[in-house]
């Protein structure tokens, strides 16, 4: 792969990268997407249990951001008490190769650091 100098990078490439990073920034969004991808539809409480350490407020904010960006759908279930469930959209499925690549890189990086 040939390195591209900063002054040669097209503006739309930089804007696209910024959009992607802004959308998926933070330590929880990829975790949420991964759980929804592997488990399918999940309730709020189940997501909170799987994403160990996330507060309800942060989870709510992250889910709202993912919904605003068309990555998840939110369904209010007519149960007693009312429950809310979340599911990935087809658009979000397109991001899964990125998540998989990051997981693979993270595993290799951990192994490399561990074996210094």
TrEMBL record:
Annotated InterPro entries: HTH_HxlR (IPR002577), WH-like_DNA-bd_sf (IPR036388), WH_DNA-bd_sf (IPR036390)
Any one GO molecular function term: DNA binding
Pfam family, one: HxlR
Keyword line: DNA-binding, Transcription, Transcription regulation
Segments traversing the membrane: none
Domain HTH hxlR-type: 9-114
Protein name listed in UniProt: HTH-type transcriptional activator hxlR
Originating organism: Myroides odoratus (Flavobacterium odoratum)
Lineage: Bacteria, Pseudomonadati, Bacteroidota, Flavobacteriia, Flavobacteriales
């Amino acid at each position: 792969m040939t390195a591209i100098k900063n002054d040669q990078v097209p503006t739309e490439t930089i804007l696209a990268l910024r959009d992607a990073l802004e959308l998926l920034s933070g330590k929880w969004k990829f975790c949420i997407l991964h759980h929804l991808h592997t488990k399918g539809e999940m309730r709020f409480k189940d997501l909170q249990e799987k994403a160990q350490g996330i507060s309800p407020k942060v989870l709510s904010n992250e889910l709202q951001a993912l919904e605003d960006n068309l990555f998840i759908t939110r369904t209010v279930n007519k149960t007693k008490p009312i429950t809310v469930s979340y599911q990935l959209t087809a658009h979000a499925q397109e991001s899964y190769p990125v998540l998989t690549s990051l997981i693979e890189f993270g595993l290799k990086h951990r192994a490399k650091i561990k074996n210094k």
